[in-house]
Amino acid sequence: MVLPECCLLFGGAESAQLNYAQDEEHSELKLAMAKFAQDYQVYLLAGTIPVKAPDGRVYSRSYLFDDKGETLGKYDKLHLFDVEVSDGTRQYRESDTFCPGEDITVVETPFGKIGLAICYDLRFPELFRALRLAGADIIVLPAAFTKVTGEVHWQVLLQARAIETQCFVLAADQWGQHSESSRETWGQSMIIDPWGSILAQKQTGTGWVQGRLDMSQLAAIRAKMPVANHNRFKAPELNS
């Protein structure tokens, strides 16, 4: 189960996240999500949760829980959305509130190795190549893509990342007009296979999508077109 970015709180300004952030050990939001995974016996990617960072900002952090509520892995958003968009919000400055992460994350599960990314990360193919090289079979992407950028870039970028990495991509995106602000998000949550085909999607509205991942398809695609072995460029390295 993959939840979107800011799955438990959105609000108006990004700074509202500061009011709910706690350190990892005492995070009530993390504990609530762990209990949810345990109660419903699901593997859960808990969108993003604000966690206190040492510099007074917060990390935008995804947690992956197993079906017993145990933490399998975590990932702090690497790329922060500091851009101007022609919408009601106009200017986004995530770095005022959020502290960027320093690591990539790939987690082993009984159904494949899962690489973690968040929203704006989608625009940086080096991260996705690094996840593939670290063994990812599935890449999850919780997001809150703006309607303006999502309308033109969301689907094509997701399909490109799936094709490039030959991974399944599970993208859960916020949708709709958010009542406490002028912010509007695109939606179109979807599941994409390693060939770039859309297995399932919900273009508008709240709800869910589901699908069955055929790992034999992934193996066949990689065997017939071994792009990871053919790539003549050096492996990407994360800047400090």
Given as residue ranges, the uncertain stretches (5+ residues, pLDDT < 50) are: none
- Helix content range of the residues, please? 10-25%
Query: What oligomeric state is this?
Result: single chain
Distance between the termini: 31 Å
Percentage of residues in strands: 25-35%
- Category by helix and strand content: alpha+beta
Give the SSE order as H and E letters: HEEEEEEEEHEHEEEEEHH
How large is the count of helical segments?
A: 5
Gyration radius (Cα, Å) is 17 Å
Instruction: Give the integer mean of the pLDDT values.
Output: 95
Shape: globular
Largest sheet geometry: 6 strands, mixed
The beta-strand count equals 14
Spatial order of the strands in the main sheet? Answer: 7-8-9-10-13-14
Structure in words:
This protein is α+β, with helices and mostly antiparallel strands and 240 residues long. Helix content is 23%, strand content 26%. The chain has five helices and 14 strands. The strands form four sheets. The chain has a six-stranded mixed beta sheet with strand order 7-8-9-10-13-14, with helices on one face. The mean pLDDT is 95.
